[in-house]
Amino acid sequence: MVTPAVQREAVAHLQACHGMSERRACRVTGADRKSMRYRSQRGDDAEVREKLRELAQQRRRFGYRRLHILLRREGVMINRKKTQRLYREEGLMVRRRRNRRRAIGARAPAPVLALPNQRWSLDFVHDQMASGRRFRVLNIVDDVTRECLRAVPDTSISGRRVVREL
C-alpha cells in the first residue's frame, strides 16, 4: 500500500469486514491514524477539465503551455502546474513530430547513358561462413549493360583496395 487513499480503503475494509477498530486496523496496515481523517481541500475541476478538452480539440497541436495561456485569456485563473497535471490526466499529450527532410532545389535529371563503360556502380555484399567468419564481396557493375565487371571477395576490403580494383 503506497498512497494514503489506498491505505484508507484498506482500513475501511478491515473495519467493515473484520470488525476491527480504527486503531487496530491502522496498526495492521501501517497507516497513520491522522491520514484516516484527512479530507482533501482540492475542489472539483470538472469545468476546467471540460474547457481544457474543448480547447485541445480545437487546437490539436497545442501543448499544455499554449492551452494554459488560452485558458487565462478566457478568464480561468489556474496555476500552470495544475494545467499540466490536468492535461496529462486527460490524456491530451501531443505526439512529437519528426522533421521531414526536404530536398533543396530541383533535382538535376539523370544523364542518358548510351555506351558501355560510361558509368559503373559499386555494391558491397556481406555474408557469413558456416564457421562464423564474416566476408564481403565488392561487385562492380556496368550501368548500361548490367554486366558484373568484377567481383572481389575478401574478409575486409579497404578504400585503397576499392580504388585499386577500379
UniProtKB/TrEMBL annotation:
<dbReference type="InterPro" id="IPR012337">
    <property type="entry name" value="RNaseH-like_sf"/>
</dbReference>
<protein>
    <submittedName>
        <fullName>Transposase B</fullName>
    </submittedName>
</protein>
<dbReference type="InterPro" id="IPR025948">
    <property type="entry name" value="HTH-like_dom"/>
</dbReference>
<dbReference type="Pfam" id="PF13276">
    <property type="entry name" value="HTH_21"/>
</dbReference>
<feature type="domain" description="HTH-like">
    <location>
        <begin position="45"/>
        <end position="99"/>
    </location>
</feature>
